[in-house]
Amino acid sequence: MIRTPLRPLARILTARARGENPDAIERENLRQRHAEMQTQSRQRAEGRLLVLGMFFLCAFTAIGARMATLATSEPVEPIASAPGSAIAMQRADIVDRKGRILATNFETHSLYAQPPQMVDPEGAAQRLVEIFPDLELERLVSDFTGKRKFIWIKKKISPEQKQAVHDIGDPGLLFGPREMRLYPNGSVAAHVLGGAGFGKEGVSAAEVIGVAGVEKQFDDYLRDPANGGRPLQLSLDLTVQAASERVLLGGMKLMNAKGATSILMDVHTGEVISVVSLPDFDPNDRPRPPTSGFDPSTSPLFNRAVQGVYELGSTFKIFTAAQAVDLGIVNSETIIDTSGPMRIGRFPIGEFHNKNYGKLSVADIIVNSSNRGTGRLALQIGAQRQQDFLRAMGMFEPTPIEIAEAAGGKPLKPRKWGELSTVTISYGHGLSTSPMHLAAGYAAIANGGQYVAPTILRQKGPQLGHRIMSPEAAGQARAMLRKVVTSGTASFGEVPGYQVGGKTGTADKPKPRGGYYESKVIATFAAMFPAHDPKYVLVVTLDEPSVIAHGEERRTAGWTAVPVAGEMIGRVAPLLGLRPQVEPDGLAAITLTSN
To answer: What are the C-alpha distances in Å from 171 to residues 115, 116, 165, 206, 277?
Structure first.
């Protein structure tokens, strides 16, 4: 900085020439210099205060933000990390269509022992056997007194059992944290959920993995931390599922059936609202798969809805009639001669109880369940067109429903599809499919002719696929199915206010090693309701039913599966939000004439 002189010579000489005091000039310059220095000092001080203020502001902001974060977050105990592969413990919940819990996680403990640290091995073994009766005393004593340094005793224990073991007080008995899968509704929807077990295990953690059902199908999703713990939402309705299971179990006992299955499906979205397979199990205590035997259906783990592949009998007749109408070969009022004899090669085609219906309309062929009438329609359709139609309905491949066991339900079709197969398949023999296949086929008729894939996941709207038949053909087929209930073989299926339409089917049960049983059948009723504007399809299948009615033993679906389905519709329809209503009549045939 260049300073101004306190006594500038030019001003001093001028002041002396005028007779002024030169010291006044010096004092004035000195005052100005002091004023400038004071101004500079104040500016420096103010700058430092500003910087210091900004620092404190930033510090308080950071501290306040951290305190707010701590105040709004859950407290977590710090865990020391250890080398090795991490075990993923967390698993997302499974909920129904309304968000109700079907499967969740439960924090529990495992029990293990370190014999070198045990004080009284024999006494501890005796106390453990009292707490866990399934343990063997001799083996525990041998393990505790041997050379082993680590022994698993129980992979999961209840809080009460943990307290009882804790009261033993032996320092060699230790607990490890566990997260187990819990199914709070017990056996409800057991075959859908499947079950879970332990994968990788450690002392401080265990990996829960799906072993069957949707737990296995969506195992990667349920274990993926990137999903943020969002639950897997199914299409099932817990209330409807529980009601369906109760009705089906009662019906199975009343009809003395070996097993049973039912499927309730939305005809527009493909959502499976309820699917039941009996006998069932509790996924909290999943039984072991059978290790011997030829018939897998004897195991409660067998999912009859998607794994059970059966000849479903006369329920297939409506497909033949609908295709014939769609092709323009007939309409519902076309007359067909169903009288015998009818032979395909050396094989006669007969009717139930050797009846002879004579000439029937196509609608009455379905109502009376005529084999010959359906067979003659099938011969007009032809083998190739019949195959194309059934293939479009998904009858040749496993259903795409997202249950792990569904992949094993592959339909069985004849190696050579000739005239005989064309005729027998038209009335449900010679082609074996699962009840889930049948539900998808009837859903196509119910929704106006479009395929809809069955799904166990919640959908946001209609999921209609490719067209199988015209809306007109589907409409005539629905009218025929309604007539079956009002005046045909399914009269026990009528539910006042809900206008049920459907078709019965009774097929001889095949033996595991080939051939058919003489007195064992698979009885099926495939229904839709309300018939004039279907919302849902219901399929009920009973394995080996037999009931005494009017002094005779009855096995047919009209006496067994139909009443069970009718009871189920009456129970679940209000739960689905369907109100009873009067069935709309058709237009009266009035001819206007002039006077």
So the answer is: 9, 10, 11, 23, 48
